[in-house]
Amino acid sequence: MVAAQETSLQKILEGTSQYLVPLYQRPYQWGPDNFKELWRDVTQLAEDRAEDVETTHFIGSVVLAPVPGSVAGSITRYLVVDGQQRLTTLTLLLAAIRDHLRERDASTRRDTDRIHNQLLTNQYEDDPYRLKLLPTQADQASYTAVIDALPTAGGDDNIGAAYRFFRAQLAEPIDPDLGYDVVQIAHAVTSGLSVVSISTHPGDNVHRIFQSLNNTGLKLTQGDLLRNYLFMRMPTRSEEVYRTLWRPLQDALADNERLETLFWLDLLQTTAKVKQTQTFAGQQARLDRFANEDEIVAEVERIAGLGRLYGLMLHPTDEPDPAVRQRLIRLAEWDSTAPAPLVLHLLVLRERGDATSEQVARALLYIESLLVRRFLVGRVTQGLNRLFPAAVQELDESLPVDEALHKYLSVGRKHYATDEKLTEAILTSPLYTTGRAAQRKTMLIWIEQLFNSKEQVEPTSLTVEHVMPQTLSAQWRKEVGSTYGIENVDDLHDSHVHTLGNLTLTGYNENLGNNTFDRKRAVLRGSSIRMNQAIATFSEWGPEQIEQRGRELAKLIIGAWPGPLTDIAANGDDNPLWESMNRLLALLPAGHWTTYGDVARVLGTAAQPLGNRLATAPAPNAHRVLTSQGEVSPSFRWVEPGRTDNPKEILEQEGLRFAAGVRADSSMRLSISQLDELRRAVEDGFDAVQ
Questions:
Q1: Which of 33, 79, 180, 479 has its CA 20 to 30 A from that of 20?
Q2: Are 568 and 416 in contact (CB under 8 A)?
Q3: Are 664 and 658 in contact (CB under 8 A)?
């Protein structure tokens, strides 16, 4: 049962009571904006009460819960479930008023004694029952200094800042015309500020009150809720557990979001399908099974141990094993949260002796390999948030963990690209338009490290550059056209410019821009980056050289990042380029047409490989893709077995008009922008459901 009543600060604080801010609550966090707002409210109230002493001002609520075994001698103790920031600030304001009056006006001795002995302290009690409000452990020293008027009062933390702010405001002369003085400000605080006191009764489910407060907009995080719930379940050992386990964990993780993530990752160790938004509910259901305080303490010990392992993921340089440390650093550089549940699981296995550091390092390499190979074939993130938590549950426990993970990643549709598919993608896929820009840069930095360069490259000084530029100058057109024919330049440029073979890294002072290859080669030759020195060995640069370099890089990548087990890997054709093509063609509307070149341009490839694909593999609406003149290609053939109908007749039945019976009506041709809009719509929708 919960009781609520409107009351004053004086009625809350006076009497033989003590209010404990739970040790696990967040430290005092109010700042200057909060202080200013409260001071405006208080001074306005004092002015209003000069005319009508019954005037009050509502400032919010406090939620109080009796401490189990709360009667300590004559003192009744309450936990401040919510409202600690407000209650702490008001007592600091009272302390500032007390000290101001003591220094400025000896005639107010009665008022200052009343503030100190009745509202700030329990006059006849010793520690730890002496202070009316006992803040969280992190704030106790600073707060006690203020209440006891010690020389250290008003330090540089938030407690000290609040006290100094109110002392400064009180030092300002008060306009006599306002009708009030500092004593009347004190009365406004103690009697005029209206507070709703919400009190629970023994046996109430206090952590559910936290939930209720959260639902009404008081913004308690799931980490707050779980912390509060755990410590409510430890009435006699909370201070010890906070000091020895919880505070070190909280300090190591640094913020509440990471604490919440830790609780979520813990759930994923046993339940693969749980959203982070369900963390509190999932943990609460699990923790409710613990019957006594000792079991809760043991659970906090386990969480603290898990937190130390999570800390290695956040700060991998703290990992003592060199091989594991290197792999953790790499995953941190990749900056993907998806592998976290599996990575934590691997560290847990090692912690309890079920895996060696060597096995964990190898398993982490397989995770890295999966990320790299998926990235290079354009798969990037789809499905990873399901794949890694599922791996925790599905690894073959009869095998060493590295072998079990390699096997798991190699079966099913994990899109763990084989060497063959990886090489094909490196030669044909537009890597520059794949994934996040930061990951493209990271990928190239990792490739540079494969050249065994002794010189360390500073990542922040590097940018991703195209050797053959994104926009061809007249000189580039001339050079490429002289070898491949001027009529083929655009198609060849479109199909090669964004592939890995044409990408490199340059420093800020090595901008390649749109310069000719001869000028770029001079810059690259003097670069400290080994892959640039390799590019500079070419005498010219075009599609042939881009493909040659692509194959060379593919060999390096295959050697560094192992692929799936070939004897069990799925053999399905899942090249994302052709899957994207199929999704796009499926959206081509009846009564309209497009060209091989336009589809290729939108997908980031060339017309020739796209045409070859349509000639050898089934694709939806392939008959709606025509030549640039609007004619059915002479080489068009139905790939579907037994199909022989005339594609032109099908198009006419769909509503497409042909001029002079030969060429499709140009007004019914889809523009590049329309095709790209279709592509974005289908790809965004596809990503959303992965």
A1: 33
A2: no
A3: yes
404-415 b/e (C-beta count within 10 Å ≥ 16 → b)? bbbbbbbeeebb
| Strand ranges (E), 474-596 | 503-507, 594-595
Distance, CA of 122 to CA of 112 (rounded, Å): 14
Cα distances from 137 to residues 26, 300, 409, 420, in angstroms, run 10, 18, 47, 60
Question: What CATH number should be reported for the domain whose range is 576-688?
Answer: 1.10.10.10
Q: Which residue has the higher pLDDT, 585 or 317?
A: 317
- Which residue, among 591, 606, 603, has the nearest Cα to 682 in the 3D structure? 603
Query: How many whole angstroms separate alpha carbon 229 and alpha carbon 205?
Result: 10
As a whole number of angstroms, the distance between CA 434 and CA 371 comes to 13
Q: Which two tokens stand for residue 531?
A: 């892959």
Closest to 496 in 3D by CA, of 476, 515, 513: 476
Q: Whose CA is closest to 17, among 87, 100, 111, 101?
A: 87
DSSP-assigned letters across all residues of 368-430: HHHHHHHHHTT-TTTTHHHHHHHHHHHS-TTS-HHHHHHHHHHSSS-----HHHHHHHHHHS-
**Model-level pTM?**
0.67
At 204, the pLDDT band (50, 70, 90 cuts) reads low
Residue 137 is predicted with a pLDDT of 82
526, 528, 532, 535 alpha-carbon torsion, rounded to 10°: 50
Smallest CA-to-CA distance from 138 within 126, 151, 155, 123 is with: 155
Respond yes or no on whether the N-terminal peptide bond of residue 27 is cis (omega within 30° of 0).
no
> So where are the chain's domains?
2-204, 218-314, 316-416, 422-560, 576-688
Lowest mean pLDDT among 324-328, 517-521, 613-617: 613-617
Label residue 504 left, alpha or beta by phi (over 0 means left) and psi (-120 to 50 means alpha): beta
Report whether pLDDT(218) > 60.
no
Q: Is the pLDDT of residue 499 over 90?
A: yes
